[in-house]
Inverse folding.
């Protein structure tokens, strides 16, 4: 993989290369622990949860079911919070969910121009680009150019709807089901569903790229 | 506030540049800042609107040149100071000098799963009927509060249409500043791309934003 920029922070395990920020954070955490405000094991547990347990595979299962099960899809579009909670995906930063259906005429994409609002329960924590100035500034201003940077080029007559997550509603894009997947199981369908497809900056994978 | 966080429509930041196969965290300190922010948030010493306001209160030059977890670190440090939970001397030395203040709750490892899966809903009983209905034409108010608000600058003074009502939700402008939850009706409002950015935009494109009633006036 080609990393054309410098990720020197990958050296974080090497104490001698520890950044100034790393040292500050270490000092801050020791202080908070010494004063009894935080339990370091609770921090470990939070990190474990969001690094390994909650992520975009959750959302992919929701999308795959909506593709395969018309009743579930109706429920998801009518009451996404309940339909998603039926998988056990609920809680922090997913308290009020809305599902947005992409169609041949309409493409939805999600941003938070003011901070980093993102549906943690179905997508996990947001990638750096989602929280960064280029995406937050441009998604509302020039969504088609942003989409083109992600390799998504839409017809001029396809509506683009950008959803700026300014309140506590959290949005999940329901992408279009690829053709040629009619007899696929939900498990296999879920492998087509990328994180970016559920943000609206990508499309599902080509079915030819997914093993049976 | 018109701070460094209000980015919609700004120019000059360059390409999006997604990182292929990006890890959830890029360094151990990011993990610890993320978790410490959540754990301190659950003490009950502040709410999410206060936390957002602490981050957006950074000097815009600092905000715009910091990574997201650096912004979280700065916001957390600021709140800890404002609440007198830590002193500048303690921050500098990393050691306790003053006695701790009592906090309502300390998050235990055993409570993490329950707390995270419970979340914190912001919907509340509405105390008054909604002022607007679906289909109503509205305008984002021309307002520039020095405190926290969730009405981005690019929507102020712009006309849109109410497309959904969501009941009353905790009002951030009040909740961030000790004014209580003051629940207000929340609406999804559609603004055409042409209304926001000019006539050269695609006629069918739009931006939808979730806006509280005090942000809106009839158009």
């Amino acid at each position: 993989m080609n990393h054309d920029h410098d990720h020197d922070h990958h050296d974080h395990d090497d104490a001698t290369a520890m950044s100034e920020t790393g040292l500050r954070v270490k000092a801050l955490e020791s202080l908070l622990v010494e004063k009894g405000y935080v339990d370091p094991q609770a921090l470990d547990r939070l990190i474990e949860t969001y690094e390994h347990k909650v992520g975009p595979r959750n959302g992919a299962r929701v999308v795959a079911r909506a593709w395969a099960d018309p009743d579930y899809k109706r429920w998801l579009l009518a009451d996404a919070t309940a339909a998603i909670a039926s998988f056990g995906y609920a809680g922090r930063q997913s308290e009020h969910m809305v599902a947005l259906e992409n169609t041949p005429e309409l493409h939805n994409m999600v941003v938070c121009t003011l901070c980093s609002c993102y549906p943690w329960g179905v997508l996990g924590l947001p990638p750096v680009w989602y929280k960064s100035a280029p995406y937050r500034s441009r998604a509302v201003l020039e969504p088609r150019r942003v989409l083109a940077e992600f390799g998504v080029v839409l017809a001029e007559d396809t509506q683009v709807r950008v959803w700026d997550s300014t309140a506590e509603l959290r949005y999940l894009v329901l992408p279009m089901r690829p053709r040629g997947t009619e007899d696929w199981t939900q498990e296999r369908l879920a492998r087509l569903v990328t994180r970016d497809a559920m943000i609206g900056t990508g499309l599902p994978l080509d079915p030819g790229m997914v093993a049976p | 506030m018109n701070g460094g966080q209000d980015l919609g429509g700004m120019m000059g930041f360059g390409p999006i540049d997604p990182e292929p196969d990006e890890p959830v965290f890029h360094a151990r300190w990011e993990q610890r800042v993320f978790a410490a922010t959540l754990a301190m948030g659950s003490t009950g010493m502040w709410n999410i609107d206060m936390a957002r306001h602490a981050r957006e209160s950074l000097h815009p030059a600092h905000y715009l040149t910091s990574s997201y977890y650096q912004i979280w670190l700065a916001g957390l440090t600021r709140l800890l100071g404002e609440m007198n939970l830590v002193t500048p001397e303690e921050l500098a030395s990393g050691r306790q000098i003053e006695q701790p203040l009592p906090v309502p709750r300390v998050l235990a490892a055993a409570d993490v799963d329950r707390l995270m899966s419970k979340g914190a809903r912001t919907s509340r009983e509405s105390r008054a009927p909604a002022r607007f209905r679906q289909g109503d034409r509205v305008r984002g108010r021309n307002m520039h509060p020095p405190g926290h608000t969730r009405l981005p600058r690019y929507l102020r003074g712009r006309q849109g249409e109410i497309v959904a009502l969501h009941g009353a939700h905790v009002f951030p402008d009040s909740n961030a500043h000790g004014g209580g939850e003051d629940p207000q009706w929340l609406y999804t409002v559609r603004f055409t791309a042409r209304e926001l950015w000019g006539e050269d935009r695609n006629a069918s494109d739009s931006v939808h934003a979730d806006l509280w009633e005090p942000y809106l006036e009839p158009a």
Summary: Residues 68-82 of chain B form the longest helix (15 residues).
